[in-house]
Amino acid sequence: MEIRIYPDEALKKHAEKVEEFNEEIRNIVNQMFETMYEKGGLGLAGNQVGILKRIVVIDLNAGKETEGKNQIVLINPEIITMEGEQLNQEGCLSLPGLYKKVKRAAYVKVKAQNVDGEDFEIEGEDLLARALQHEIDHLNGIVFIDRLSPLQRRLALQRYKKLKREYERKMKKR
């Protein structure tokens, strides 16, 4: 799968609810994990690969020896509880090379469905809470720089334009 790079239109769209749980959804999930691992991410949302379905994959152990052992699949996720506050660096596969501090809830509870359509809840603190919020934002057409103040966002976009040119040059050499 190809990662959509900001400002791709798919990143600005609200993803649609998954209604049918079938082999196609399982294949999408598997391909999303493969793409996420290949690109060195911890999470990936459907929008980021041009699939406007409410699908998220997360593995906080990506790139480590335990990669693949704690995979999280969220279909139709919805945050039901948010508590506390944290301010930490975030990056995004759709904004390669850009990292900024973003304020997020320190704890979240999310309800979602698994690949079989079964309902479940997941709770996360710190990095997992951040990843859950970041990826669910994607499903709602929000990228992490949208969470910055107007001034911070403008500065981040200026920096990103430089990074994007470098990224595109690098990709052409491949």
TrEMBL record:
Q: Which cofactor does it need?
A: Fe(2+)
List all membrane-crossing ranges.
Answer: none
Task: Tell me which Gene Ontology terms the entry assigns under biological process.
Answer: translation
Known catalytic reactions: N-terminal N-formyl-L-methionyl-[peptide] + H2O = N-terminal L-methionyl-[peptide] + formate
The UniProt note on the cofactor reads as follows: Binds 1 Fe(2+) ion.
Catalytic residues (UniProt): 135
What top-level branch of life does the organism fall under? Bacteria
Q: Which of UniProt's keywords are assigned here?
A: Hydrolase, Iron, Metal-binding, Protein biosynthesis
Q: Which SUPFAM superfamilies match?
A: Peptide deformylase
A GO molecular function assigned to this protein is: peptide deformylase activity
Q: Which InterPro entries match?
A: Peptide_deformylase, Peptide_deformylase_sf
Residues that bind Fe cation? 92, 134, 138
Annotated EC? 3.5.1.88
Broadest EC class? hydrolase
Say which family it is in: Belongs to the polypeptide deformylase family.
Purpose of the protein:
Removes the formyl group from the N-terminal Met of newly synthesized proteins. Requires at least a dipeptide for an efficient rate of reaction. N-terminal L-methionine is a prerequisite for activity but the enzyme has broad specificity at other positions.
Q: What is this protein called?
A: Peptide deformylase
**Species of the source:** Desulfurobacterium indicum
